[in-house]
Write a structure and sequence with these properties.
There is one protein chain. By secondary structure, the protein is α/β, with parallel strands linked by helices. It has three domains: 166 residues, 3-Layer(aba) Sandwich (Rossmann fold), CATH 3.40.50; 151 residues, Dihydrodipicolinate Reductase, domain 2 (2-Layer Sandwich); 84 residues, ACT domain (Alpha-Beta Plaits, 2-Layer Sandwich). Helix content is 35%, strand content 26%. It has 14 helices and 17 strands. The strands form two sheets. Strands 7, 8, 9, 10, 11, 12, 13, 14, 15, 16 and 17 form an eleven-stranded mixed sheet that branches. The longest helix has 20 residues.
C-alpha cells in the first residue's frame, strides 16, 4: 500500500517544471519503491496567466507563496525560486514542522546555520542536493557514501559558465569578452553573469561543501574569491607552454585546525582529471582517508539534471517518513566541532607571474631580489623575444610555494619598478 505525501511547489520555472515532469513520468526505479507517492497540492508562480509547456491543473496555481506553506494538505515544501522571500517561506515551513527541499545555494551558504537549527528544533528535514553541482550527487556522497572517511582535500569545477568560457578560450575560439557574449547567446550564461564570472557562485557552493566535508560554519562571504574577468589569451598560451590549463577552481583543504577555502583561476597540469573537464560540465575531486581520490562529474546545471537532484531528495524524505526514521538534519548542526575558514594570507601556493618589462640589464635581478626578500624562491623563468617596436620583453616567472601574504607584498613592490610596464599578472598554481 502506498503512502502519499502532499507537495507544495514554490517556483514553476525551468527547474520547477522539470520536477513536475519527472513526477508525472516516474521511471521504473521510482515505481518499484512501493511507498513513494507524491500528491501535488499547490504551486506558487509569479504570473498566473503565463502559458506553460508542462501540463498542470490550473486550480493548483497561486501567486502567493505563503498559501503554499500554510496549506494543511502540504507536508513537503519544494522551494525553487531563489527569490528574496525564499528564506522567510522556508523558515515558516520548518517552523510548522514541514520538510523542505531547496536548490537555493545562496540562502544555504549565507544563512544555512539558522535554517538547520530551525529544522532540528521542529522535527523537520531540509534537503539541498540540487544546490551544488546540479545532478551530481556530491552532497549525498559526502554525507552518506563517505561518512567513514576524513575528507582531506576537495577540488571542484563548480560553475559551468566559467568552465565553458575558459574551455573555448583554450581552444582558440576568441577572447574573454567575445566568448562571454557567445555563452549568453547560447544560454550558458545569464544576461547578468556577475555571480558566475566573479567566482561568487562557486564560492557559495564551496561554503556548503565545506560544512559537510570539513565541519566549517563559514559562509560564501568567508571564502576567498577571484573571478576570471582578467584572464587573457596570452595567459592561456603561457599556461599551455608550461604544461598547464587554466580553470576556475574551488579548493578546500584541512589546515592546522582550520580550513582553507578559496575560489580563483588556477593553473592545473594538463594531464590532470580536472584539466579535462570541458565546456559546461562540473566536477569535484575528493580525497578521503579510507577511499583515496574520488571524482564526481556531470552537468552542474540545467533543467533536468537539477530537477533530478530535487526529486532524489523528495524520495529520500518520503522513504524516511514511511520508515518512521528521525530527521537527517542533525549532522548539519556542528556545535563545538565547528572549524573556521583560514585567512588566505597564511595559505601557501605556487604562483605564475607575467609582466611586460623594459629590455634593459638588471630587471630580472631586481625582481628576483624582491622575491628573495620575501623568502619566495623562483622555480623557472621564461623570457620572450623583444618587442621590436616598443623595446619591451614579456617576462614569466614561476615560483615555489610561498604564502599569499608574502606574494602580495612582493607583487606590490614589483609593480612600482620603473622597468615594469602595466599591471603584473598573478595566477595561482595547483599540482593536482
Amino acid at each position: 500500500m502506498s503512502d502519499s505525501i502532499g507537495v507544495g511547489l514554490i517556483g514553476f520555472g525551468t527547474v520547477g517544471s522539470g520536477v513536475v515532469e519527472l513526477l508525472q513520468d516516474a521511471p521504473s526505479s521510482m515505481r518499484r519503491r512501493k511507498h513513494v507517492d507524491f500528491s501535488l497540492q499547490r504551486i506558487a508562480v509569479r504570473d498566473l496567466k503565463k502559458s506553460r509547456r508542462t501540463s498542470i491543473d490550473p486550480a493548483l496555481l497561486t501567486a502567493n507563496a505563503e498559501e503554499v506553506v500554510a496549506d494543511p494538505a502540504v507536508q513537503l515544501v519544494v522551494e525553487l525560486t531563489g527569490a528574496a522571500g525564499a528564506f522567510d517561506w522556508v523558515s515558516e515551513a520548518l517552523r510548522q514542522g514541514k520538510d523542505v527541499v531547496t536548490a537555493n545555494k545562496a540562502m544555504l551558504a549565507e544563512r544555512g546555520e539558522e535554517l538547520f537549527e530551525l529544522a532540528l528544533a521542529n522535527g523537520a528535514d531540509l534537503m539541498f542536493e540540487a544546490s551544488v553541482a546540479g545532478g551530481i550527487p556530491i552532497i549525498r556522497s559526502l554525507r552518506n557514501g563517505l561518512v567513514a572517511n576524513r575528507v582531506e582535500l576537495l577540488y571542484g569545477i563548480l560553475n559551468g559558465t566559467t568552465n565553458y568560457i575558459l574551455t573555448r578560450m583554450s581552444r582558440g575560439k576568441g577572447d574573454y569578452a567575445d566568448i562571454l557574449k557567445d555563452a549568453q547567446d547560447e544560454g550558458y550564461a545569464e544576461p547578468d553573469p556577475t555571480m558566475d564570472v566573479s567566482g561568487m557562485d562557486a564560492a557559495q557552493k564551496l561554503a556548503i561543501l565545506c560544512r559537510i566535508a570539513f565541519h566549517s560554519t563559514g559562509t560564501g562571504s568567508d571564502v576567498f574569491c577571484e573571478g576570471i574577468e582578467c584572464i587573457e589569451k596570452s595567459d592561456i598560451e603561457c599556461a599551455r607552454e608550461l604544461g598547464y590549463v587554466i580553470k576556475l577552481l574551488a579548493i578546500a583543504k584541512q589546515q592546522n585546525g582550520s580550513v582553507e577555502a578559496r575560489v580563483h583561476p588556477a593553473m592545473v597540469p594538463v594531464d590532470s582529471l580536472l584539466a579535462n573537464i570541458h565546456d559546461e560540465f562540473n566536477a569535484i575531486q575528493v580525497q578521503g582517508s579510507a577511499v583515496g581520490p574520488q571524482v564526481f562529474s556531470g552537468r552542474g546545471a540545467g533543467q533536468m539534471p537539477t530537477a533530478s537532484a530535487v526529486v532524489a531528495d523528495m524520495v529520500e524524505l518520503l522513504e524516511r517518513k514511511v520508515a518512521g526514521a528521525g530527521t537527517a538534519i542533525g549532522d548539519m548542526i556542528l556545535g563545538e566541532e565547528a572549524v573556521a575558514i583560514a585567512s588566505v594570507a597564511v595559505v601557501e601556493m605556487r604562483y605564475f607571474l607575467r609582466a611586460l618589462v623594459s629590455d634593459q640589464p638588471g630587471v630580472l635581478e631586481r625582481i628576483a631580489r624582491i622575491l628573495s626578500e620575501e623568502k619566495i624562491s623562483i622555480a623557472s623563468v621564461l623570457q620572450k623575444e623583444r618587442d621590436l617596436h616598443g623595446g619591451s620583453v614579456p617576462l614569466v616567472i614561476v615560483t615555489h610555494e610561498a604564502s599569499e601574504a608574502a606574494m602580495q607584498r612582493a607583487l606590490a613592490q614589483i609593480s612600482t619598478l620603473d622597468a615594469v610596464q602595466g599591471a603584473v599578472k598573478l595566477i595561482r598554481m595547483e599540482d593536482l
